[in-house]
Design a protein that fits this description.
The complex is a heterotrimer. Chain A is of the alpha/beta class. Chain A has a domain at 42-137 and 210-296: Rossmann fold, CATH 3.40.50.300. Chain A has helices at 9-12, 16-19, 22-28, 33-39, 85-89, 122-128, 143-153, 158-171, 175-178, 191-203, 221-234, 247-253, 280-285, 290-296; strands spanning 45-56, 59-70, 74-78, 102-110, 113-114, 129-132, 209-213, 239-243, 256-264, 270-279. The model of chain A is unreliable at 1-41 (pLDDT under 50). The longest helix of chain B is centred in the first third of the chain and has 32 residues, at 84-115. The mean pLDDT of chain B is 85. Chain B folds into two domains: 21-56; 65-308, MetI-like (MetI-like fold), CATH 1.10.3720.10. Chain B is mainly α. Classes of the chains: A alpha/beta, B mainly alpha, C mainly alpha. Chains in contact: A-B, A-C, B-C.
Chain lengths: 301, 312, 316
């Protein structure tokens, strides 16, 4: 429960400790974000975020995030628990709209269209920006119906469905394992298979972007390896944003990495913020910010 | 017995002290047996009830059961009277009850769980449902008499099975709402998120994912509510079920919904208030029939619940 | 492979209108929202109609009745005598007897199921209690006049009336046992295991733990069970109408072995129809007045019980 007006919260945090790292934070925020994408002229910007704040009622969960997401790349969000990386991920398909009291301020621009305006229907946004969740969450239906559900809603014809199901499952490297039991319950699959089914379900509606919220956290190492291979293949067709706790995973599969951190204000409220956003190779070899370095070398978090 | 002992005393007495002594915990054993007695009393009287009714109603149950089930009420003599109208009437009333209570109750539950997360209107609705659950059944009879049978006479046709069914629908509405709310809350959010994640509208999430997942529990609640309605007599007495009897004339089934009606529990009440032992036999026999009916419906509900219980 | 779904391509050139769902799907979703809200409103309407019905009917009665007639010798609605104390005393007597039957048995069963019973026993007993809750009240009314009075009570009371409050109270008690047991069991199970372990850890026997630790901790919930059970007993109609008699006419009396009408049985008698046509028109209006009283009494009791249960939920 905060007594002070929301608008004043960002200023409060410039303490002696954070002032030292101020220059690196400026690098990733505001106007500086655009040139960074422009440096890599061959890529196209899918999301352009500028000064994004996320509130849950009066509580500021994420402060002032500005970054660009490039097409056909894998962007990883890393950072300690509670740093707001999942919160930020759910901004891209307006999943936060489903949480009572959640509010997004600032600008998230998707291919030139402001995402958070009344004219935009989150339902269509979620069709174009698909999502894979932390725990595999297949519908309690057959494998076939799990994949066909989204296309049906989007208006796919019955005659097209067989094709869509086969193509999506093939793309998710699951087809060979399930082709003979498409009509059986998805709950009969192993955890890793279920998560690949969820990926197939997400790409069945022909999205532009696939958001992945710690997709491997519930899986064993072998299943995790298969998902990572799959992500590398999928980025030729889709833009992928992935939240992960596992830094090695981020280093293995991502092109860009955003490191988020968390800061508590004097009332103990923990607010996440973006510390550093750079090509993955750079972040893991030569981080700009001491907090990033501390985190990736395992001294914090 | 002393509480404080010297260390030496503890040492020498330790082996004895730790040994279980027979008869030491007399109070505990007595308490436990009292509790068992209470439990047996609380649950066992159903068996006594059933046995007494079967014995009392044996003349009808053993000899004339088929006649009893297939003939109408008779004012002339107990031997000529049957419960046919009551059975048909109860089924009609239950049908009307279901038609009104189930859609309203389930929809209210959906509104409470899926739409209004604790807003003021939702809090009013919740408080209202809790209070409705405690309103005595006969007060619903007043509602039925004044509103469903009189104000809405044009729709219900007066004191008819439709008015009676609507009255019981109002009465069981809280049961349907409360069990449906529980059913919907048990559906995990991950299922909703999965559906939203592929671009489903709220209605599509609810109609194709959440409701199918909650259906078996909602069904259980509905069956329990109808069982309650099946055994209820008090409100129906005020809505004309005690004085009206469905006629067997040329009327077809549909027309009987808007004519005079009665219900099985009301018939039992009618048997019970006639002077003479013969009528008592009828009352007991009809009681056995309604007990079997209500227990079977409830058993079905409990079976459904256990059969379809899903662990998420 | 042709794109299976009609959709505009991703990438630059995206327009706001591309991020809209079809009008049909949006209309369905908006319509469903309204339909659900309307249903919720309908449940509030049921309450409003109940209150309006009993209040307006009760007002008609109050504005016409001579107040002296509310305290005359007994309940004779067709003669214009509406002594409320007659009905009140009978209602309270029967409900108190019901509590004397239901509370020891219901609490005993609740303590047994929550503290002692093997999970397997519990798994069988809980549904059995639920099943008991569904026994139709008319059947218990018949049970009272065909068994409780003739086979049990006549052994203790020589001149007991065929219709009597004692048998009605016992039968109502049997009826509310499952309700009381259920609320009490919830209250007992809400007591944290840690409290029981703390007591056992001090060397207390199970009986001591149950009586000295668990019961006091669950006291407010047990109180709620009694209040809600009492409210249910006050509102019970059929058992009382069949077993206690006197719904149509009753002289004031305190004897439990005599018949006596209650709020509910008086309402049932008035509702049986004859009074609507014949006799004092005020008699029929008294039906609504009694309904209003009953509604108010049970509402207060239930809200009190609800308040206690809610406070209990917040406690642990």
């Amino acid at each position: 429960m905060t007594q002070e007006p929301d608008a004043t919260v960002p200023e409060v945090t410039v303490t002696a400790e954070t002032a030292a790292s101020q220059h690196t934070r400026i690098d990733v925020s505001g106007a500086a974000a655009a040139p960074m994408a422009a440096n890599r002229a061959d890529t196209q910007t899918v999301f352009h975020c500028d000064g994004v704040h996320v509130y849950y009622a009066d509580f500021l969960a994420l402060r002032n995030v500005s970054l660009n997401i490039a097409a056909h790349e894998v962007t990883a969000f890393i950072g300690p628990s509670g740093c707001g990386k999942t919160t930020f991920l759910r901004c891209f398909n307006r999943m936060n709209d489903l949480i009572e009291g959640a509010r997004v301020e600032g600008s998230i621009n998707y291919h030139g269209v402001e995402l958070y305006q009344d004219e935009v229907d989150p339902v269509e946004v979620r069709r174009r920006v698909g999502m894979v969740f932390q725990k595999p969450n297949p519908f309690p239906k057959s494998i076939y119906d799990n994949i066909a559900y989204g296309p049906r809603l989007a208006g796919a014809k019955r005659s097209e469905l067989d094709d869509i199901v086969e193509r999506s499952l093939t793309r998710a490297a699951l087809w060979d394992e399930v082709r003979d039991r498409l009509k059986t319950s998805a709950y009969g699959l192993s955890g890793g298979q279920q998560q690949r089914l969820c990926i197939a379900r997400a790409i069945a509606v022909q999205p532009d972007v696939v958001l992945m919220d710690e997709p491997c956290s519930a899986l064993d190492p072998i299943a995790t390896g298969r998902i990572e291979e799959l992500i590398a293949e999928l980025k030729t067709e889709y833009t992928i944003i992935i939240v992960t706790h596992n830094m090695q995973q981020a280093a293995r599969i991502s092109d860009m990495t955003a490191f988020f951190s968390v800061q508590a204000n004097e009332m103990g409220q923990r607010t996440g913020e973006l510390v550093e956003y750079a090509p993955t190779s750079l972040i893991f070899t030569n981080p700009d910010d001491p907090r990033t370095e501390a985190y990736i070398t395992g001294r914090v978090g | 017995m002393t509480i404080l002992t010297t260390p030496a005393g503890i040492a020498t007495g330790a082996a004895d002290a730790l040994r279980k002594r027979p008869g030491a915990d007399v109070a505990g054993a007595t308490f436990k047996w009292l509790l068992i007695g209470a439990t047996v009393f609380a649950t066992g009287f159903l068996a006594v009830l059933l046995a007494v009714m079967i014995v009392d109603g044996w003349d009808v149950l053993s000899g004339n059961l088929w006649y009893f089930l297939t003939h109408g009420f008779s004012q002339r003599s107990a031997g000529e009277a049957g419960v046919w109208q009551g059975i048909i009437g109860s089924l009609q009333v239950a049908l009307v009850t279901g038609v009104f209570a189930v859609p309203t109750g389930v929809a209210t539950a959906i509104y409470l769980v899926e739409y209004a997360q604790g807003n003021r209107f939702a809090r009013i609705v919740e408080l209202n449902i809790r209070n409705l659950a405690g309103v005595p059944s006969i007060v619903y009879g007043l509602l039925g008499l004044a509103v469903f049978a009189q104000t809405l006479r044009g729709f219900s046709g007066g004191t008819t099975a439709i008015a009676g069914g609507m009255t019981l629908a109002a009465m069981v509405l809280p049961i349907v709402v409360i069990t449906s709310v529980e059913a919907l809350k048990a559906v995990p959010d991950s299922l909703r998120e999965a559906a939203y994640g592929v671009g489903a509208t709220k209605w599509e999430v609810l109609s194709r994912q959440v409701l199918p997942a909650a259906l078996s529990t909602i069904l259980t609640g509905t069956v329990l509510a109808l069982a309650r309605a099946l055994g209820e007599a008090a409100p129906l007495i005020l809505v004309g079920a005690a004085t009206g009897f469905m006629s067997f004339g040329d009327a077809n089934m549909l027309e009987t919904f808007t004519g005079p009606y009665t219900a099985l529990p009301v018939l039992i009440f009618n048997f019970a208030r006639q002077p003479g032992a013969d009528w008592g036999v009828n009352a007991a026999a009809a009681s056995v029939i309604i007990l079997v009916l209500v227990l079977a419906v409830n058993g079905l509900a409990i079976y459904l619940r256990n059969r379809f219980e899903r662990q998420w | 492979m042709a794109p299976p779904m009609s959709t505009t391509p991703h990438g630059p050139g995206l327009k706001v209108t591309d991020l809209r769902t079809s009008v049909r799907r949006r209309a369905w979703s908006a319509g469903a929202r309204w339909a659900f809200a309307l249903a919720a409103l309908a449940t509030v309407l049921v309450s409003a109609l109940i209150i309006w019905t009993v209040a307006s009917g009760a007002w008609t009665f109050i504005s016409q009745v001579a107040f002296d007639n509310l305290t005359e010798i007994g309940w004779f609605p067709r003669r214009g005598l509406f002594d409320l104390s007659t009905l009140l005393v009978n209602s309270v007597q029967i409900s108190v007897i019901a509590m004397l039957v239901a509370v020891p048995s219901g609490f005993g069963a609740a303590i047994y199921l929550s503290e002692y019973a093997h999970p397997k026993v519990r798994k069988v007993m809980k549904p059995t209690l639920e099943l008991l809750a569904s026994v139709p009240s008319v059947v218990l009314g018949v049970f009272a006049i065909s068994f409780i009075t003739p086979s049990i009570l006549t052994n203790f009371f020589d001149d007991i009336n065929f219709f009597n409050k004692l048998a009605a109270g016992i039968a109502v008690g049997l009826l509310v046992i499952p309700l009381i047991a259920s609320i009490a069991e919830d209250a007992l199970r809400a007591v944290p295991v840690a409290l029981r372990e703390a007591s056992s850890g001090l060397g207390a026997r199970k009986v001591t733990t149950s009586i000295r630790v668990v019961l006091p901790a669950a006291m407010s919930g047990l109180m709620a069970a009694i209040i809600v059970g009492f409210s249910r007993a006050i509102g019970e109609t059929m058992v009382v109408t069949i077993a206690s008699g006197g719904g149509d006419t009753s002289l004031f009396n305190l004897a439990l072995t005599e018949s006596g009408g209650t709020f509910t049985s008086a309402m049932a008698a008035l509702g049986l129809g004859t009074d609507q046509v014949a006799g004092n028109n005020l008699a029929f209006q008294s039906l609504y007045f009694l309904g209003a009283l009953l509604f108010a009494i049970t509402l207060v009791l239930n809200m009190l019980g609800d308040l206690i249960v809610r406070r209990l939920q917040n406690k642990y």
